[in-house]
Amino acid sequence: MRLVIAVDGTHLKGRFGGTMFVATAQDGNEQVYPIAFGYGDSENNLSWEWFLECLRGALGHIDDLVFISDRHASIEAGISKVFPYATHTICCWHFGENMKKRFHRKDVADIMDSAARTYSEFNYNRHMEELHRLHKGAFEYAIAAGPHKWSRVHCPQRRYRLMTTNVAECINSCLKFARQLPMMTLVEFIRNMLQKWFHDRHAAARSMRHQLTDAAHLVILKRVEKCNYMTVNPVDWNIFSVKLKGNQWTVNLHSKTCTCNKFQMDHFPCSHALAAARERNLDYTSLCADYYKRETLIDAYSVPIMPVGHPSSWVVPSDIASRVVLNPKSKRQSGRPMEGRHASSSERTTTQSCRRCGQSGHNSRRCSNPPMVNEGPSISVPDEYRRKCSICHSIGHNKQTCPEKDSTVE
């Protein structure tokens, strides 16, 4: 996997409550790759620290590791303590939602998102200057949060194309109804789900016809189309000058870099690098990191998720069997549990409107206003399209009110 892990917590909706912690990565075929699940009381410092310590025990020490999460203080505190050598970043979508809620402006969040996702320092400065002119408070808020936290350009390590915690949110969405189940049933549901995922994805990876994964191959094809409009001028055997519409980039195929920064930040060739590779008749797969190759995807799903069998057949060590697992320390809220989620400030909310008067806030059954008058031009419907009586075939009534109804009865 690319060295980016998204972590998130979600509430359990069963009898005892609690929180489920998820650590997720993304494979070379742009698919969700679950790493670890954990269960605790709530999203507090002790629970997150325990989960991250278990995650470190499973992964070991990994250089250049990047974590992505929301701005929960317990997550940041746990990562800085358990993974001091890793880089903690925040989800740019959650950060944008916080800006919308704080400043009640969607445009400032859109500009911030563009600044976060850009690959070049020049474009980042241009977006931030626009944000400063538009709303000084939003600009100061983004700077105070730390550009190294949310900006791809200023991140100390590679974030690749993972700018949000969407891979973790997908897991939460898949377990939306399973989170209402008891703990052991939920664990078995997750195991069964991953068993199917690993089997199907391993079979799909083995059937791929290209050296790259299907998702990576599709991106390559889209970028190759842009090469037809580029002008390539060799500098030496490895360095090229690529021009398009007055813009110019420098590509080094030996060091796998480009002045657009996409090549080195994603470990995946940009369109300029593909144009330079075509000039030398170089295979584009040699420019891609192993993360995007078919063989790596096969290895990722080569170990199957095995069934656990009946509990009577389990061999449980004595030190594990002697442990007492208590229920989560959570207080259940009064009332019926909420099945959905609270809509964010950017999501559209439907407004009820009355079909009688056209105003919003009520329906036609509770309407006390005068009916709406249609001031537009009347539309005449031809007689051949109007409903006719099935007895006398006249227009203006039906068979129940037809004056010839009685005369037709034998």
UniProtKB/TrEMBL annotation:
Keyword DNA damage assigned: no
Residues in CCHC-type domain copies: 354-369
InterPro entries: MULE_transposase_dom, Znf_CCHC, Znf_CCHC_sf, Znf_PMZ, Znf_SWIM
Entry superkingdom: Eukaryota
Keywords: Metal-binding, Zinc, Zinc-finger
Record field: transmembrane: none
PANTHER family recorded: MUTATOR TRANSPOSASE MUDRA PROTEIN, POLYPROTEIN, PUTATIVE-RELATED
Organism field: Acer negundo
Residues in the signal sequence: none
Pfam family, one: MULE
SMART domains to which the protein is assigned, alphabetical: ZnF_C2HC, ZnF_PMZ
Annotated ranges, domain SWIM-type: 240-281
Segments for region (Disordered): 326-381
Molecular function as annotated in GO: nucleic acid binding; zinc ion binding
UniProt keyword annotation of GTP-binding present: no
Protein name: SWIM-type domain-containing protein
